[in-house]
Design a protein that fits this description.
alpha+beta
């Protein structure tokens, strides 16, 4: 049976949990990281030398890096669905997954950590403001890409929407001012109508 290590308030773990729920895969979870600890054990280091979450073990295949896990699960258990059969459509999903990891999620970290995990007297206001500005710019970029599209790779829900959706949930849930993003907001509402993210993406953020 698939086993997942991670903590439920990690956006990277949420990507995997949402994917597993979309695929209705039997699985077990073990809470590690953050308040749960456990990342510094030799056993965990053997699975993931980065000592981060998530990690999965699927029948002896141990895998880390959230986007790689999402791709693997989609390809193995839902080829033609979450893993598009059309290579051009799959490339669209892949591109936005990588963009999320290298651009949007990275830009968001100072604002999220500052506003949601740091006591107010200890916050770096300048870093938070810069993070919000950049994150909002990228949100508008995603909004432009979603105009006229139901989902990020076209008319069908794919693995790309899961990864983007988890980070969009974090952006939309932060206590900040955001520009109007009608296409992004409509897409996000479509995502949140699906059963799978319920109970995985929660508010308030932590």
């Amino acid at each position: 049976m698939l086993k997942i290590w991670g903590r439920p308030n990690s956006v990277n773990v949420q990507k995997v949990l949402w994917t597993v729920r979309e695929l209705a895969l039997p699985h077990t979870t073990e809470h590690v990281g953050g308040q749960f600890g456990g990342l510094d054990t030799p056993e965990y280091g053997n699975m993931n030398p980065n000592r981060k979450v998530p990690v999965i073990d699927d029948g002896g295949l141990v895998l880390w890096e959230s986007n790689a896990i999402v791709r693997y699960l989609a390809a193995r258990y839902n080829e033609g669905g979450l893993w598009p059969a059309d290579v051009a459509v799959r490339a669209q999903a892949d591109r936005w997954m990588d963009w999320t990891a290298t651009e949007w999620q990275v830009a968001m970290v100072p604002a999220f950590v500052g506003l949601c995990r740091t006591p107010e007297p200890q916050r770096d206001a300048t870093a938070i403001a810069e993070s919000i500005h950049r994150t909002n710019q990228l949100g508008q970029m995603l909004d432009a890409a979603l105009q006229g599209c139901e989902y990020i790779a076209g008319s069908h829900f794919t693995m790309g929407d899961i990864v983007l959706g988890c980070v969009a949930h974090r952006w939309l849930g932060m206590p900040i001012e955001r520009p109007a993003t009608p296409a992004l907001s409509a897409w996000y509402r479509r995502l949140m109508m699906r059963p799978a993210p319920q109970g995985v993406l929660t508010l308030p953020l932590s």
